[in-house]
Each structure stands twice: as C-alpha cells, then as structure tokens.
C-alpha cells in the first residue's frame, strides 16, 4: 500500500480513532491515523491533572465491540482514574496491533478537497501530503484548551499548569502557595488533591457549579450483576437510553410528590454516587424550572450541610441557572476542602481578577503572590479542535468560515460542501451529553457501514443535501428549545469562549432517539445524502425528523401501552375512555374563576363552563366548542386548553357542551353551537362580560362547530363576531385530502377514527352541507378575522389549510399557523408538551388581536 494515498485518513488516536482504525482494517480499507501526542488515549492522554477520573462508571465507560475485553480487563474501581483508562486504551491498541497504524507526534495542519480527483489532501506538521478518499475527524469534543482570556497571563514568571495539558511527570505542589482558576469538572476534581499538598490554596471561582459526590469504591453491584448476567441486553439498553447509560427514566414529576418524599428520593440518588442519578430522580428536571429548582435547592442544602462557613457555603451554591444546564460535576471531598484552614475561595464576581502579574494575581483590592498558577478554565468545546485544522471543502470554503454563526451539520456527522468528511461525536450529535463510549461506537459503526455501502454501490463521494442539513438544524433546535439549556452560559452553548456563536452545540434529543434516526437514514438509502460515482449520482433528498421531539416521545409511550383503537369501541366506551384519559392530565394554569351553568340550546338546555380571568372585567368573551369528533367530550373536557387561553389572552371563555352523536346526529351540534353563541351574546352583560366583543373558538370537531357558528352568525343576522380561532378543525366531510393518506396512521387521530366520527355524526348525503363541511360553503366572504392552526402530522391538516386559504381568497383576514411537527392533539396538551407552548401563545395573541 502507498502510505501517501489511502482510503481513509483519521485524525486522532483516542477511543474513536482506535475503534475506527480497527474497523477500517477489518473491512479492507487502507488508512492512516494521525495523532499529535506520542501515545494513544486522546483525552486521557492529555488530561493528567491530579484527581482526573471518568465520572461515568466503569460498567459503562468501556468498549463493547471486543467482548474478550470484558474478561481480560478488570477495572479496579467504580470511577476509573486517568492512568487506568490510559492503560486500557494502550492495552486495546496493543492487543489489536493498532499502534502500527498510527503516526504519532504528527499534527494535521490542513485538509483540502479536490473536486477533480474526488479526494482530500491532508497536510501534516511533518510536511507530508497524504491523499485520501475519506477524511475523518476523531479529534474529541474537549481537546482544545480554551485560550486564556484573563489579563496578564503572559506576565507570570512562575510555573503555569493547564489541566488539559498536564505535565506527564506530574507536579509537586508541596509547601507552595497555589492559585487555581476555574471550578468546572477539572477544577473540582483537582482542587482537593492540590489542597493536600499546597501550603496555601486560593480557588478563583466565577460561577459555582453543581457537584455530586462520586462515592468512589467498587463497581456498583446492581449494574455489575446485570452486566454479568446478560451483557447483550445491558448494552442494548445503554444504546437506546437517553444518555448512553441504562437508567430507567423517571415518570414522576418533581411536584407530584410531597416535599419529604421528594427529599428521600433525591437523598437515595445522592447516595448512589452516579453522575446521572440526581437529575434522573424526576421526569421534568430538564424541562421545568420549578421541577429543576427542587433538585437545585437539594444540592444547595447539601453544600450548606458540608461547608462550615455559611458565607463560603453560599458562595459555592449555584444560583441563577438550572441544575444540569452546565455540566454537573462529580467530586471527592470538593466541598469539604473549603473547611480546611489553608484553603480560600475568591468570588470573581465581587473580586474580579485585575491582572495576572509577574509574581501572582491582582484581584479585587488585593495583590497576592503565588508559587504556581493552575488554569482549569476549560475548552473550546465541540468545534475548537475541528476548526483548528484548516479544512477546505468544495469551492475553497473552510469549515471555520461555514460555521462562523454556529456549526451546521447533518446528524453531527457530515456537512454540506465537505464531501467525504466525517466527524465522530461532532456538533449536532449527542456527544458530550452522553456516555462517550456509546456514542463513539455508534458513529464508528455508522461511518464504517456507510463506507461499505458506498464501496458496494460503486460510489466515490457522499455529501448531505442542504435540505437535510437545514432539517437537522431545525430538529436540533426543536429539541433544544423544550429544555432549560438555552438560557444558561455554559460551554454547551459556546458561552465560555468570547465571540463563539451561541447555540446548543450537542444534540439533546437523546442517545436512543439519535441512534434510531441514524439507523433510519441508513435504512432509507442514506436519506438526505447525495452519493455519486462512476455509475452516476443518487440524490435522496429529504428531512429525517420533523416531528417535535416531545410529541414523538408521547407517541412512542402510547405505542407501548397497546391501547385499543377508539373506533373499535362503542360510543359509550369511547366516552368513558376519553374521560379516564382526561382525569390524569395536568389541570392547566389557574384562572380567576370557573362557573358552571346551563344555557338554552337548539333543543334543550346545554351545560357550559365559564372561565373568567383574574384581572378585572368586563372581559371579551370566546364561545368555545370542545373536540371529540361530535361523539365525546363535554364543556369541561378541554379544561386545560380553556384555562390556558383564558389566562394567556386575558379573555373569558364559555365552553359549551353541545349535543353529541350518534344520539343526536347532524345538524344537532351545529344548531346547538349557534344557539349557544346567540345566548352568550344576549346574556354577556348579565354575566359581567363585554357584549360587544365576542369570538368563537374550537378544536377539531369543535373547530367545525365554531366555523359553522361563524357562518350562521354571518347569514342569520348576528351576533357580530370579532374573530374565529380554529384549532385543527374538521372542515370537509369528503376526506379526500392528501393528509388523510399521509397521516392515516400513527398520530393518534387516524383516518379510520375520523371515518368512525363521521359515520356517527352525519349521513353521507349530509356531509356536503356547509353546516357539516364549512369548506364547501359557496361564499366565505364576510366572515370575521380568523386564526387557523393546522398540524403537520394531522389527517385533517389539508382540509384546515384549505379552509384558511379559501377564506383568505374570499377576502377574510386570515392568520394561518402551520404547526411544524405537531399532531391533531399535541397542541392541546397543556403543561405536558413544551413544544405546544409557542402555538398556544400565538393563539392567545390572535384572540387579543381579535378584541383590539
Ligand atoms: O472546563 P469547564 P473543565 N476567568 O469549562 C472558569 C469534561 N470533563 O475542564 O463557569 C475566570 O467546565 C469557568 O467559569 P464559568 C466535562 O464534560 C470531564 O472543568 O465559565 N474563570 C469554569 O468554572 C466538563 O464539563 C471530566 O463562569 C474562568 C472553569 O473555568 C468538561 O470536560 C473531568 C474563565 C472551566 O470549567 C470541561 O471541564 C474533567 C475566566 N476567564 C472534564 N474562563 C470527567 O469525566 C473560564 N473560567 C471526570
């Protein structure tokens, strides 16, 4: 083999580079692995500071691809030390003869794509030019120490140590006055050990971190036993878990348990000494500020119980950002260290560093001399090591230029304009939010399988399409936006490096979901990629995930319940089922008052519920019609949604229980809707409401009733309406629209359930009546302003879209919100699905606009 022309160049000989090298060899690809250091190990080669350990348990932080390793390697502790992990990497490299495939002390300085040869040319610090078909960055996420951004760093004459570049021979701090700057994982692990040697230690803290005790010792028995008993199942669970460690997800909201019980649960998690245990105590720690505060305050109480000086304890207590949104740390005696007489904590917020000096540090109103300074100030994470190499893709654009406003990738693995470039655990993949071993193996497997598929298919190049990349960016953002991460200044958000774009760099949708997505891309013939070779080009354009991640989770959860289809039930059974489901949902926000009453319908009294805002009235009023396919539901069945609209829009809602089918078929619901509207208009003043400002609203079949009521009001002399809010409405009984096929199954409201509803409600001959199908009205002009909300994964999507369009064409002022990634029901799931908040906020804003 020519060493200067290979199939694949891999940068980095950490765990990713090692496994990839093994797989490439196994499958007959020639390769070169280029590594800056003089040994394997990557992050565990560089990070040799005192106390450096992995804070994922050794049951989980190890390779799974070589089953023999499990028997021939015994970890000595629960959390392995850096030297032990490095020895493990060396052992694997020796065992599989990987050293022979690695060029050490060889830094890659540049890589240029050549469009003619369809190859990369990689240049090294040794002046070599290597051509390769594929180029893989296995450079790690936390490998590029951040440039010091503290004034005067170059003035100091004494020894300076950076945690991420620690001397191999170690450092002896005995008898020294030592400064440590930074209290992230590296600082928190090293500070207790530096304190054991130093005569005086000053810790400079800018932001206190949440840290949980490692309680190191033997491997956790329960995990070790499960692993031993059934390794395959254990590893499969890890691969499909949220973080790459098999933790059973909590189903308990933090506020659903009494404070004492919550504390007991958190105490048990604390005592596990596992990084992920505390955050996993409750299901909503990552998405709800109030839930998160329960855990945050628990940690603060622990700090207060450990640190004797209350002022120091308070300074060490994180406030102002949620637990977990900065990487939590694991420590051994970190907080205890601040009880030692020779250890001092300096809060940089009240005493900022003015300058590092020749002999020490000027901070606040002090000047202090130090014998050594330790920088534990972190990394240019996720992208630093990738863009440090001058990578020029097609048209001479560098990755650094392309990523100026934030990294753009497809799956965190590839990027448009950079054919045949792969990143292992790149930005846009779970990476640092996961057990890296699981994520590394998954990426290597995916890249290997892709290279094999390309070879088998006669393809030379692979590149994602702009549509796929943009779709992935949007999906990553959808996932991020339902969490609490985006408001915190963390390195996850690029906030630790001045000038870095502010985005959530890792993918936060979870390891399991991510794996399924990558598998799906592969199974669908590399969806979102263009592959080309001598035999031609295959462009398989598309977006792999548009559904909102929380909506998808609900669908997955429901699929596991094995519920019978509603259309297999009788109407009575369906009503009981619907009521039982409603009984277990969150109630929705508080409103000023809820009053139940009856009003005269078209053929007898109808129940209603009036929701009144807490503010003083008289309020405008929305006559609301519930969902339930005209068959089930009631004036209280959409309670959370009605409360939400009432509270957010500051309007009164009168929710009406119109008559239901099949007992009362078409046009009973329509006639009741209009009768209720007239009654509310006539009685608004006596209800303390504003009779001059009335609108209608409804969801699903209720959206149908609302739309029909608006048409009847137009045609029958009033009342005059300020607006109509139609949420995923039924507008056309023909059910011929494409979305009935596209979304026929799998999104709760199915095509066959819709058929069941129509069969109960209206005879086929009646379905073209505009009172059943408002879309079929010959004239839609003169209707009040409308907001129509349709959902992407709803069988009713296209008929809702069509109604919005038809009204607009008829001159009606229409606001049309196409809710991306939502289903027929998801927007109504108040306090359950964070992704429903923006559309509901838009609906409330529309109501406010209706009423001026
Ligand atoms: O870096 P960090 P790290 N002036 O960025 C402070 C992984 N890891 O090396 O928070 C003053 O977390 C900075 O303050 P602030 C793990 O994923 C894993 O400790 O930006 N202070 C912060 O306190 C971890 O999260 C393991 O306000 C400055 C600290 O320096 C990641 O690596 C072990 C400053 C940096 O903390 C990075 O951890 C170690 C300035 N100019 C690391 N600039 C294990 O698995 C920064 N700081 C065990």
Explained architecture:
With 852 residues, the protein is α/β, with parallel strands linked by helices. It contains 25 helices and 29 strands. Strands 1, 2, 3, 4, 5, 6, 17 and 18 form an 8-stranded mixed β-sheet that branches. An 8-stranded mixed β-sheet has the order 22-23-25-24-26-27-28-29, sandwiched between helices. It has a 5-stranded parallel β-sheet with strand order 7-16-8-9-12, with helices on one face. β24, α19 and β25 form a beta-alpha-beta unit. The chain is globular and about 90 Å long. The mean pLDDT is 96. The chain binds 3-acetylpyridine adenine dinucleotide. The site of 3-acetylpyridine adenine dinucleotide has 26 residues, from α5.
Q: What is the topological layout?
A:
Layout: E1 5-11, H1 15-26, E2 31-34, H2 43-46, H3 68-72, H4 82-95, E3 102-103, E4 108-114, E5 119-124, E6 129-137, E7 160-162, E8 177-181, H5 185-197, E9 200-205, E10 211-213, H6 221-229, H7 231-239, H8 259-272, H9 289-306, H10 310-316, E11 329-331, H11 334-337, E12 343-347, E13 353-356, E14 360-363, E15 366-369, E16 372-375, H12 384-387, E17 390-392, H13 399-402, E18 421-423, H14 436-457, E19 461-464, H15 466-481, H16 511-523, E20 529-533, E21 536-540, H17 549-561, H18 571-583, E22 593-600, E23 605-612, E24 619-625, H19 639-649, E25 652-656, H20 668-683, E26 689-699, H21 701-715, E27 723-727, H22 739-742, H23 751-761, E28 786-793, H24 797-809, E29 814-823, H25 837-850
The chain binds 3-acetylpyridine adenine dinucleotide (N01).
Residues 53-55, 142, 149-150, 163, 181-187, 189, 206-207, 327, 348, 376-379, 432, 491, 496 line the site of 3-acetylpyridine adenine dinucleotide (N01).
């Amino acid at each position: 083999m020519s060493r200067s022309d290979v199939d694949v160049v891999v940068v980095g000989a950490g765990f990713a580079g090692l496994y990839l090298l093994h797989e490439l060899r196994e499958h007959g690809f020639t390769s070169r692995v280029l590594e800056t250091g003089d040994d394997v190990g990557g992050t565990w080669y560089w990070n040799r500071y005192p106390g450096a350990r992995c804070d994922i348990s050794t049951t989980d932080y190890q390779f799974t691809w070589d089953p023999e390793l499990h028997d021939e390697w015994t970890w000595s502790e629960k959390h392995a030390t850096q030297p032990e992990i490095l020895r493990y990497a060396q052992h694997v490299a020796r065992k599989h003869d990987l050293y022979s495939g690695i060029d050490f002390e060889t830094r890659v300085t540049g890589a240029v794509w050549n469009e003619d040869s369809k190859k990369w040319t990689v240049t090294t610090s040794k002046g070599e030019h290597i051509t390769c078909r594929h180029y893989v960055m296995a450079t790690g996420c936390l490998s590029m120490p951040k440039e010091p951004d503290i004034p005067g760093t170059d003035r100091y004459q004494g020894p300076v140590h950076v945690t991420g570049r620690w001397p191999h021979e170690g450092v002896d701090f005995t008898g020294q006055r030592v400064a440590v700057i930074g209290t992230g994982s590296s600082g928190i692990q090293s500070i207790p050990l530096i304190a054991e040697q130093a005569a005086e230690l000053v810790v400079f803290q800018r932001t206190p971190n949440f840290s949980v005790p490692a309680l190191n010792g033997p491997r956790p028995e329960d995990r070790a036993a499960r692993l031993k008993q059934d390794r395959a199942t254990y590893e499969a669970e890890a691969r499909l878990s949220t973080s790459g460690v098999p933790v059973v997800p909590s189903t308990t909201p933090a506020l659903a348990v009494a404070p004492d019980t919550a504390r007991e649960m958190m105490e048990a998690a604390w005592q596990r000494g596992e990084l992920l245990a505390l955050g996993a105590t409750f299901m909503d720690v990552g998405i709800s500020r109030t839930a998160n505060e329960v855990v945050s305050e628990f940690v603060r109480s622990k700090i207060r119980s450990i640190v004797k000086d209350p002022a120091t304890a308070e300074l060490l207590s994180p406030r102002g950002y949620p637990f977990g949104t900065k990487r939590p740390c694991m420590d051994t005696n970190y907080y205890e260290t601040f009880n030692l007489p020779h250890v001092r904590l300096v809060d940089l917020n009240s005493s900022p560093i003015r300058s590092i000096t020749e002999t020490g540090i000027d901070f606040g109103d002090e000047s202090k001399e130090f014998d050594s300074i330790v920088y534990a100030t972190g990394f240019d994470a996720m992208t630093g090591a990738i863009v440090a190499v001058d990578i020029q893709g097609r048209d001479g654009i560098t990755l650094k230029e392309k990523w100026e406003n934030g990294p753009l990738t497809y799956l965190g693995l590839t990027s448009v304009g950079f054919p045949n470039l792969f990143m292992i655990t790149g930005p846009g993949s779970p990476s640092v939010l996961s057990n890296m071993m699981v994520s590394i193996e998954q990426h290597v497997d995916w890249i290997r399988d892709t290279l094999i598929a390309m070879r088998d298919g006669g393809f030379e190049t692979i590149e994602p399409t702009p549509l796929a990349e943009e779709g992935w960016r949007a999906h990553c953002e959808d996932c991020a936006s339902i969490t609490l991460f985006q408001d915190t200044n963390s390195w996850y958000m690029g906030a630790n490096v001045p000038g870095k774009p502010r985005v959530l760099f890792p993918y936060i949708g979870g390891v399991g979901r991510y794996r399924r997505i990558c598998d799906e891309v592969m199974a669908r013939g590399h969806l979102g990629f263009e592959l080309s070779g001598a035999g031609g080009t295959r462009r398989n354009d598309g977006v792999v995930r548009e559904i909102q991640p929380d909506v998808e989770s609900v669908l997955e959860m429901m699929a596991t319940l094995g519920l019978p289809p509603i259309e297999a039930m009788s109407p009575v059974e369906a009503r009981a089922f619907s009521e039982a489901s409603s009984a277990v949902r969150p109630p929705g926000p508080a409103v000023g008052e809820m009053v139940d009453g009856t009003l005269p319908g078209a053929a007898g009294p109808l129940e209603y519920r009036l929701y009144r805002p807490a503010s003083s009235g008289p309020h405008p009023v929305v006559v609301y019609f519930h969902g339930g396919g005209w068959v089930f539901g009631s004036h209280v069945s959409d309670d959370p949604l009605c409360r939400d609209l009432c509270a957010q829009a500051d309007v009164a809602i009168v929710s009406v229980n119109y008559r239901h089918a099949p007992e009362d078929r078409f046009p009973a619901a329509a006639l009741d809707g209009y009768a209720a509207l007239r009654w509310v208009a006539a009685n608004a003043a006596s209800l303390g409401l504003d009779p001059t400002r009335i609108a209608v609203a409804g969801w699903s079949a209720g959206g149908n009733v609302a739309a029909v009521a608006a048409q009847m009001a137009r045609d029958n002399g009033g009342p005059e309406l300020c607006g109509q809010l139609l949420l995923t409405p039924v507008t056309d009984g023909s059910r011929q629209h494409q979305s009935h096929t596209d979304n026929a199954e799998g999104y709760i409201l199915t095509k066959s359930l819709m058929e069941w509803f129509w069969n109960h409600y209206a005879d086929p001959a009646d379905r073209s009546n505009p009172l059943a199908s408002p879309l079929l009205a010959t004239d839609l002009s003169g209707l009040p302003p409308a907001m129509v909300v349709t959902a992407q994964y709803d069988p009713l999507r296209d008929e809702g879209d069509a109604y919005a369009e038809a009204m607009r064409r008829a001159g009606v002022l229409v606001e049309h919100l196409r809710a991306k990634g939502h289903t027929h029901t998801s927007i109504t799931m108040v306090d359950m699905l964070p992704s429903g908040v923006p559309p509901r906020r838009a609906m409330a804003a529309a109501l406010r606009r209706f009423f001026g």
